[in-house]
Amino acid sequence: MVNIVIMRHGEAEPLTKQDSQRQLTSRGKREALQMAQWLQNCYSAFTDVWTSPYLRAGQTAEIMLSKQSSECLLQTHDELVPDGNPLLLLDLIDTKLAAEPDARILLVSHMPLVSFLVEILTQPGQTPVFSTASLCCIDYQPASRGRLLEKVAPQDLAMLPG
User: Fold this and answer.
1) I want to staple 32 with a disulfide (CB 3.0 to 4.6 A). Which of 10, 115, 122, 138 is the partner?
2) DSSP per residue over 67-115, as a string?
3) How far, in Å, CA of 21 to CA of 1, rounded?
4) β-strand pairing of 4-8 with 105-109
5) Greatest CA span in the chain, whole angstroms?
6) 97-101 long-range contacts, Cβ below 8 Å, gap at least 24?
7) How many other CB atoms are found less than 10 A from the CB of residue 18?
8) d(CA 28, CA 126)
9) pLDDT classification of 159: cutoffs 50, 70, 90
10) Rounded to an integer, what distance in angstroms lies between the CA atom of residue 150 and that of residue 39?
C-alpha cells in the first residue's frame, strides 16, 4: 500500500535573486497537473499534502491538492526546504502515522532533500535523482524501512508536448 509519496516541484523559472520566490513555468504547471491526474487515477486519495514554503513547491502542492478529496489537508512545513533535515521529517512522518495509522501523505519538496527522504524511508544507498515533477511512491510503516514501489516522472507518461 502506498502511504507516502515524495515529489519534486514542477519546472521553475531560472534562478534569480531569491530562490524561494521562483514560480512554476507553464511547463511546470502542466507537469504538476499531469502527475496529479496520474496519482488520482492510480492511488487512493491522500489525507495530507505537505509542502515546502518555497513558492514553486506551494504552487505544485496546490495543483496536486486540486485532484484530491476535499478532506485532504494542505500544510506548509519549513523542514521541506532544499537543505532540510530528512531526520526531522522522518520524525514528523512517524508521529503522524502513529497518531493516524491510515494517513496517506504527499510531500512536495526539492532536490536534494527528496532524494535523501527516499533513502531514509526505504534503504541506504537508494537516493534517486528526481527530474521536475517526479515522484516516488513508498509503502512505509514507522519503526521499519519502507519499500519504494515505483518512481514516475512526467516524461514517463509521454503526455507532455516537447
Assistant:
1) 10
2) TS-TTPEEEE-GGGSTT--HHHHHHHHHHHHHH-TT--EEEEE-TTHHH
3) 35
4) parallel
5) 44
6) 97/3, 97/140, 97/141, 97/142, 98/142, 100/47
7) 9
8) 26
9) low
10) 12
- pTM summary value: 0.94
**Tens-place pLDDT, residues 125-158:** 889 999 999 999 999 999 888 999 999 999 998 6
Ramachandran region, residue 130 (left: φ > 0; alpha: ψ -120 to 50; beta: rest): beta
Q: Is residue 160 predicted with pLDDT exceeding 90?
A: no
First to last CA, the chain: 33
Which is it for the CA torsion 146, 45, 39, 13, positive or negative? negative
Q: Which residues of 53-89 are buried (b: 16+ CB within 10 A; e: fewer)?
A: ebbbbbbbbbbbbebbeeebebeebebbbeebebeeb
